Automatic annotation (TrEMBL):
Protein name: Uncharacterized protein
Domain of life: Bacteria
KW Transmembrane helix (keyword) present: yes
Transmembrane annotation, as ranges: 27-44, 53-70, 76-97, 109-128, 148-166
Species of provenance: Gracilibacillus marinus
Record keywords: Membrane, Transmembrane, Transmembrane helix
Organism phylogeny: Bacteria, Bacillati, Bacillota, Bacilli, Bacillales
Length: 172
């Protein structure tokens, strides 16, 4: 709990916000995952009952979809309310995912993972191929770098899916 609170405090500091939000790459691939990790590091107080799992998963997937929209990332830089929402919702996403994922079936997890792969591929294509500036607060060359990173992530995720399909997911 101390580690999660320390990390959260460090991320809220104005200097770290300014540094991490100054470039699209650090905003998207450093600050947002670290906020998610804050929720993952927060300890469980009690075991969730099965009836809460699906509402948690639907809430988490809805919020993740919200934060995947480029306009939302852009809005978090200029709108204080959206930034506050970012610092509240992303740790909540991490915590709810942590307490819920182990109760899901392998088929459901595979479906969610496959959807994540397709979304990363879609964003790679979007950021690499769009000739216009998607985010008003970031330059087009930063957009191309983010697209390349999404493409690399998609390739590694596809490789992992192929490994599971042909070799299996044995933990030895």
């Amino acid at each position: 709990m101390r580690l999660s609170l320390l990390l959260y405090f460090l991320l809220i500091l104005p200097i770290s916000r300014e540094v991490l939000e100054s470039y699209m790459v650090t905003h998207m691939f450093v600050q947002l995952p670290l906020l998610y990790a804050v929720g993952m590091l927060f300890p469980n107080r009690k075991e969730y009952k099965t009836r809460h799992i699906w509402s948690n998963i639907i809430f988490v997937l809805g919020l993740l979809s919200f934060w995947m929209v480029p306009r939302t990332l852009d809005d978090a830089l200029v709108n204080t309310y959206t930034e506050i929402l970012k610092f509240i919702s992303l740790p909540l996403i991490g915590y709810l995912w942590k307490v819920s994922w182990r109760h899901l079936s392998e088929m459901t997890l595979a479906f969610i993972y496959t959807q994540l792969v397709s979304m990363c591929g879609l964003f790679a294509w979007l950021y690499l191929d769009t000739p216009i500036q998607i985010c008003n607060n970031y330059l087009i060359n930063e957009q191309k770098i983010v697209g390349a990173i999404y493409l690399v992530i998609t390739i590694f995720m596809c490789g992992y899916l192929l490994k599971i399909a042909f070799i299996g997911n044995k933990k030895t």
